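Researcher: Before we compare anything, I want clean individual predictions. No alignment, no superposition, just each chain on its own. First chain goes here; please echo the sequence and then give the structure tokens.
Model: Echoing the first chain and its structure:
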Amino acid sequence: MNDTLVFEQQTKELIDDLKGICANYGLGNDGNEFKIITQVFLYKFINDKFAYEVKKADEQIAKAESWEEALAKLSADDYEMLTSMLPANTAKLKPKQFISHLAKQANDDFADLFDNTLIDIAAQNNDIFSIKTAENSSIVLFEAVSKYIIEENKRDLFCKAIIGKLIGFSFEKVFEQKYDFFATIFEYLIKDYNKDGGGKYAEYYTPHAVAKIIAAVLVTEEVKSVTCYDPAAGSGRLLMDLAHEIGDEKCTLYSQDISQKSTSLLRLNLILNNLVHSIQNITQGNTMLEPFFKEDGDLMKFDYIVSNPPFKLDFSDFRNDLDTKENSERFAAGIPNIPNKAKDKMAIYSLFIQHIMYSLNDENGKAAIVVPTGFITAQTGIDKRIRQKLVAERWLSGVISMPSNIFATTGTNVSILFLDKGNKNKVVLMDASGLGEKVKEGKNQKTVLAAEDEQHIIDTYNKQVPEDDFSVVVSYEEIAEKNYSLSAGQYFEVKIEYVDITKEEFEEKMKKHKSQLTNLFDESLSVQNQILKSLESLKYEN
């Protein structure tokens, strides 16, 4: 096992140890456990990043037997001069805030010392690490963690146990690692805290394969100084992959999400992945009702937009607030009506698609949106009007229909809708539903794409290669003739061929056909449901 894998395992063990401490003090699976784990992990990370950068800036500190003691001996002016030389994305710490300093304290009020240390670090670095809300309030980096231990007499021991786990571990030797390492660590860190809770704003974690394909399709040439945006960012997987495909130093990220938990996780993700310069552009708030980023009174336009928005939820509380003259252009295709029943199935994804279309750079903006596959064939209502608009304006790049259960948390079949305001010619439609291997993940069945499957999708799309029963390259006129359907299956040629094949080859072909039929059936069922809902809505309105 190489050094990176060894350290990856040690990091995961540290995370497990911290979760074990929480469990021992009654916080296992508690709603506040993730706040403690993520903040403690982040405190350790920025402590070690500070040490790493200080040693790079001062050779004598690097050679000292104890870098902490060497720093503590500096005069106030020398200390300030040294810290001013550190990169702008490095948290500024004082010697009394080092983990090693806390580890030496035997205070009876240790919990207060620990909490105050975190709060003071947050205050000192507020300009770098705080997150804005749509109302222009701030969400600071740290808060007190011992308050979550109900029994006050156990708080000191709890905090000492945490420091005891942190003191024997260091991140310093991995700060040169690239994105893949920290992406793995981030996923492991949040794996118990970013699941579909079934609530009003369920947080679906975007699979690695989907994020990789989106980034590789959107970024096909070198770019400089571009803006990237996600209006439903979650913990930021799509933005991270896009940024690393472009180059961290060549892009600025912007995001908004209604969930404070997801927004805090996104901040952690940015810090781990050396994208601290974009934290000032993270916003927590309702993107549909209160879009935050504006220029000259209108919504800001972005070069790249990626999003895996919630598909359906009850937004009846603010639905009528969206139906205004001010929003008439942004939601030109319409706003879903409030149904008599099943309000939780309101199709909010259609609002996100329209918001993204409106927010995209008019010259050559590119976007990728994860949508329910039913969207690409719906023959009535808002979905069809959106597709008609995309064809009329020639804003399409293409669609990739993904395998069923690519998301372990939802059984909804998904497709990736690609927009490109600079593409006036051909459109790529792909049916990748037959790829991948089905595996069990907990109680759910999930489809996993092999690396070669991912690359086949990327290469076929980017090179615009037609492939039997897999991909087609069509014109905007052909799409209009097919009633604006974006389903690749409706463009495949029917061929009759007689070939000798083995039993195994026959079974493989049947497997692929079965998957495609299942996908088409789901699409037709979605269309049927939409027609029934439209009829019900008309009946209700009459």
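Researcher: Okay. Second chain, same rules.
Model: Second chain and its structure:
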Amino acid sequence: MNRVTPQSDLTPKHGGVSSRGGSVLILVMVVIAMLTLGAYSFSEIMISESEATAMYGRQAESRAFADSGVELAAAVIAVPETEEDASLYHNPNRFRGVLLRESENARGRGYFSVIAPVETDPAGTALRNGLIDESGRLNLNRLLSFELDETQTREMLMYLPDMTEEVADAILDWIDDDETLRAYGAESDYYTSLDPPYEARNGAMESLDELLQVAGVTADLLYGEDANRNGKLDPNENDGDANAPFDNSDGLLQPGWAAFLTVNARELNQRADGTERTYINNGVLDELYDSLAEEFDEDIAQFVVAFRMYGAYVDPDDPAAQAAAAESGDSGSTSTSSETNSNSNSNDNSGDSRTSQGGLVEAAAEIGNALGGNAQGTVSRGGMDLSKGAKYDLKSLYELIGAQVEAEIEGQKMLLQSPWAADSGSMQTYLPTLLDALTVVEGPELSGRINVNQARIEILLGIPDMTEDIAQAITSSPMIGAEGEAIAEQAIQRTNTGWLVSQGIVDLPTMVKLDRFLTGRGHVFRAQIVGFFEEGGGYTRVEATIDSTESPAKVVSVSDLTELGRGYTTTELTGIIDDGTN
């Protein structure tokens, strides 16, 4: 007999199979969602890692681009490949947008550029492609070598923005070699009272940052408004208190003392080809005569040696000439420069320095005969008795230009005219050779001279006997064309200071006074170099110091400025205006 099961017995208790099936479905959906999210997160992480790896690679490449720029700058300084390379001031063909990585698209193309501000542009908007000559700045470590009085030395610093007498004297006390307190300065007794205490350097500074230890010097004074140290006025450096750095929003860049000062400048006392110059204050007159005759000719040798023996002739019937000679201290007076050889002067009775030592008459006669003299030891050249010795040392080569000398030639007084005429046309022709071949300073280096081609007006105004008119004329004379192009003839002409007199900016008597402070080119350079891609991220900005007093030129230091930003637009770095197609 069939048994009929009640309907109630067939119904699952507590939900049975149907309840479990719904839970599994939800669980599966949750798992799928988690796996999907996990896959998405993994994908995002991989994409981020890929982008980070790509960016790291581009950053590494940009570093290599910048390093290549440093090496190129050092190579061009040491061994210029072309005549154009002689211009380190502005050479866009060599230093702007140098392509190192080629690509079909802008994002892949990599470059470096050597870029610098135009120091004479107060607005801080003009840029150039070249190197910064450290001699364009005032070298604190050589400042005392000029041996000026305390007031004049302080004055060389007083034209810097916001400089005070107290800070100027504190800087000078920091670098001098004693504990003698200047009128407004500070020495170790002040610094040892601070917490923590320290002593004054009393010697050469190792870096400009050391100035922050000097009484009264602050970071704002040292670095000014140029927060990213690119030498140009950026929007955030001209908006008052809206963004750091806080500025006066006057449309002008106040760069801070770091743009005016240096501790690294050096200048070799040698010719452009690296050979030794002729020391014109040589006390051995026959040696001087012979070297000048070989270098130039007998007439030049005769005039220069006569100048050393008798000094410049001043017409007694010309009151203006007499007054000018008195004002300049008489170009025939004995040099007071510490850089001339103090032992090169002779008195009236000393004779040639090699023929008068200890009164050894026989030795004098022997040497005199060997040198073409007579039995009494007299040495003669160009009809002049050189045994009378040199009475005058030259303070400047510019004393020789347009001068006259009254000398005794073959027993007769004669008026010798300078072979170097004072007209501008002639000076433009001979001055480069004259200033390259001769020197009034003995030794391998010249101390602290300032490159007039790159010096800011504040530095020029501090130089003794510099007038505001002269300083304005120097800084107003362009080294770059109106369209930003290099002016080749300017670069060649301005490797020395002769252009100041040949162009009538400085007269000869004033140039004689200024000469020991001025130069046309030093031998230590600063290069700011940016390695970058034409489009997209990845850049490196460095600042290198390169010393060309050694051969090959030596890269002394490289500072990484990348954290301060790229500093320049692609257009500024390449000279290519972005038309929006990239």
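Researcher: What stands out in the second chain?
Model: Residues 188 and 194 are 10 Å apart (CA to CA). Additionally, The longest strand covers residues 524-533.
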